[in-house]
Specification:
Elements: H1 2-25, H2 32-37, H3 39-59, H4 66-83, H5 101-126, H6 134-150, H7 171-183, H8 191-210, H9 216-227, H10 230-235, H11 242-262, H12 265-279, H13 284-300, H14 305-327, H15 344-348, H16 351-365, H17 368-371, H18 374-384, H19 390-413, H20 418-429, H21 431-454
C-alpha cells in the first residue's frame, strides 16, 4: 500500500498545483490566506481539468501516461499564469464569522462531525473490502484497465470499445487509469484512496465557495449533514461514475447560484467547466447540464451570454465525443434513444413505464434512510425564499424538476425491461439531484436566516 499511497499523494499534489494556477489565473487566488481557504477548490479544479484534458488526449490517440499528464499540466499552468496579470482580482469579501459563544460552539461541533466522518471514510479507503457494484466489475474497471494496458482508447478486440456500453465517455476510466499510472500498477485497491482525496477536496471546495455568504454555525453543520448521508458514503470510493457526476453537478449548482447572486463571470466559468466534466462522465451528464443551463438562462433573462457559456462547454464536449464514436463506428447506447420522444404513438403505449419510473425516483429522492431529509429541506427553503430571492429559488426548484423529468423520460422510452432497469440504477441516478440540493442547502438556510433576522 506504500507505493499506492505515495502515488495518490503525488497525483493529488499535481491536481492542487494545476488548480491553484488556474484559480490564480482567473483572479481567485492572490494571497496565502486565499490559497489556504480555496485549497479544496484548487484540488477539484485540477482534478476536473486533468480529466477533461485526458479525455481529449485519448480522443486524438494519446495515452494516459506521466509524460502526457505532465505536458497537460504544464500547458494549463502556463496559460493560467499568462492570464493572472491581465484579469482583475475576484472581489472576495471577508469570510463570515461567529460573534457569539453559541455560534462558535455550533460551528465547532459541525466541523468536528465532518472531520470524524471523513476520517472514517479514510480508514475505509485505506482498508477496502473489494466488494464493488456489478457495473464496476463489468465495465468501469475493465475500461480503465484497457486504457492503462493498451495505452489509450483501443478499438480492437479486448480494447475500450469491446467493453459494455462503449459509447459512455472516457473521463472516469481515464482518471482511474491515471491513478494506476501513479500508483505503479493496475491495483484497484489504490482507487478508494484517490476517491477519498477528491471527496475531502469537494467538501473543502464547498466551504471555500460558501464562506463569504454562509456563517460557520450554518455552514459546517450543513456540510456534516451532507457527509453523513448514507448513500453518499456508499458512493465515495465505489468507482461508479455516479460518484463524480454527483460531486460535479453539486459544484456546478453552487457556482451558478453564486453567479446569480454576484454576477461575476468567473463563477459561471467554473460552473461551465464542472458541467463539461459531468458531460464526459456519463451519458446523462449532458441532460443534467442542459437542465441547469436552461434554468439559469430563464432566470438571467437579459444576460444571455453567461447561460450560453454554461451550456456551450458541455455541448462542445458532447459533440467531440460523438465525433470520435462516429469515426470509429461505435453504435449508440442500446438502452434508449431520445429520438423516441418524438414518436407520440410509441410514448402513448408506454405511459405506465413513465408513471412507475417517476414514482420510484420520488421514493429514492425523498428516502431518509439513504439521503436523510436533504431534498425536502432544501426544497422547502427554496419555496420560502421565492419572493425575496426569486432567482435562487427558481434555480433550486426548477433544476431538479427538469433533471427528474429527464430521468423519468429515460425509463419511459427505454427498451430495457423496466423493473430490472429501475432496480439496477434508480438509487444511484438521483445522487446528482440530491447532492445539488444538499450543496445549496447551506446557502438557502443562510439567506432564510438573514431574512428572519431583518424582519421586524
Amino acid at each position: 500500500m506504500t507505493r499506492e499511497l505515495t502515488g495518490v499523494i503525488v497525483l493529488t499534489a499535481g491536481y492542487t498545483t494545476v488548480g491553484a494556477a488556474v484559480l490564480y489565473g482567473i483572479g481567485l487566488l492572490r494571497t496565502v490566506r486565499q490559497s489556504l481557504r480555496l485549497i479544496g477548490l484548487a484540488i477539484i479544479v485540477g482534478w476536473v481539468l486533468t480529466g477533461i484534458g485526458l479525455s481529449l488526449a485519448l480522443a486524438i490517440g494519446l495515452s494516459v501516461s506521466v509524460v502526457t499528464t505532465g505536458a497537460l499540466w504544464a500547458v494549463i499552468a502556463v496559460l493560467a499564469f499568462l492570464g493572472g496579470p491581465v484579469l482583475p482580482p475576484f472581489p472576495l469579501r471577508a469570510a463570515r464569522s461567529e460573534q457569539t459563544l453559541v455560534g462558535r460552539s455550533i460551528a465547532l461541533v459541525g466541523a468536528g462531525l465532518l472531520a470524524v466522518d471523513l476520517t472514517a471514510l479514510a480508514w475505509r479507503s485505506a482498508n477496502p473490502s473489494g466488494q464493488l457494484h456489478a457495473d464496476v466489475w463489468n465495465f468501469w474497471l475493465p475500461k480503465a484497465k484497457t486504457i492503462y494496458f493498451f495505452d489509450g482508447l483501443d478499438t480492437g478486440v479486448g480494447g475500450f470499445t469491446s467493453q459494455t456500453s462503449p459509447d459512455y465517455p472516457p473521463l472516469v476510466p481515464a482518471l482511474e487509469a491515471l491513478t494506476f499510472t501513479f500508483a505503479g500498477g493496475a491495483d484497484v485497491l489504490a482507487l478508494p484512496l484517490a476517491h477519498w482525496a477528491v471527496a475531502v477536496a469537494f467538501f473543502g471546495a464547498l466551504a471555500g465557495l460558501l464562506r463569504e455568504r454562509v456563517r460557520p454555525a450554518i455552514l459546517w453543520p450543513a456540510l456534516a449533514m451532507l457527509a453523513f448521508m448514507p448513500m453518499l458514503a456508499r458512493l465515495i470510493g465505489s468507482s461508479l461514475a455516479d460518484e463524480p457526476l454527483a460531486l460535479l453537478y453539486a459544484l456546478a449548482g453552487v457556482c451558478s447560484a453564486l453567479w446569480l447572486l454576484d454576477r461575476d463571470w468567473r463563477m459561471a466559468a467554473l460552473g461551465s467547466v464542472f458541467l463539461v466534466a459531468a458531460t464526459l462522465t456519463k451519458n446523462e451528464g449532458l441532460m443534467l447540464s442542459l437542465a441547469l443551463a436552461l434554468v439559469v438562462a430563464l432566470v438571467a433573462r437579459r444576460r444571455p451570454v453567461v447561460p450560453l457559456l454554461i451550456a456551450g462547454g458541455p455541448l462542445l464536449a458532447f459533440l467531440a465525443w460523438k465525433g470520435w464514436l462516429s469515426q470509429h463506428g461505435v453504435p449508440p447506447n442500446y438502452a434508449y434513444s431520445f429520438d423516441d420522444l418524438l414518436r407520440p404513438g410509441y410514448l402513448a403505449g408506454r405511459v405506465d413505464r413513465f408513471e412507475y419510473g417517476a414514482i420510484e425516483l420520488l421514493k429514492q429522492l425523498f428516502s431518509p434512510s439513504k439521503w436523510l431529509l436533504t431534498a425536502p429541506l432544501a426544497l422547502v427553503l427554496a419555496g420560502a425564499l421565492a419572493r425575496v430571492r426569486p432567482g435562487l429559488s427558481a434555480l433550486v426548484l426548477a433544476t431538479p424538476a427538469l433533471a427528474f423529468l429527464g430521468y423519468a423520460a429515460v425509463y419511459w422510452i427505454s427498451s430495457v425491461e423496466l423493473h430490472f432497469y429501475v432496480d439496477n440504477n434508480v438509487e444511484r441516478v438521483v445522487a446528482p439531484i440530491v447532492l445539488f440540493l444538499g450543496a445549496l442547502f447551506p446557502l438557502l438556510f443562510a439567506e432564510a436566516f438573514e431574512r428572519s433576522q431583518e424582519a421586524p
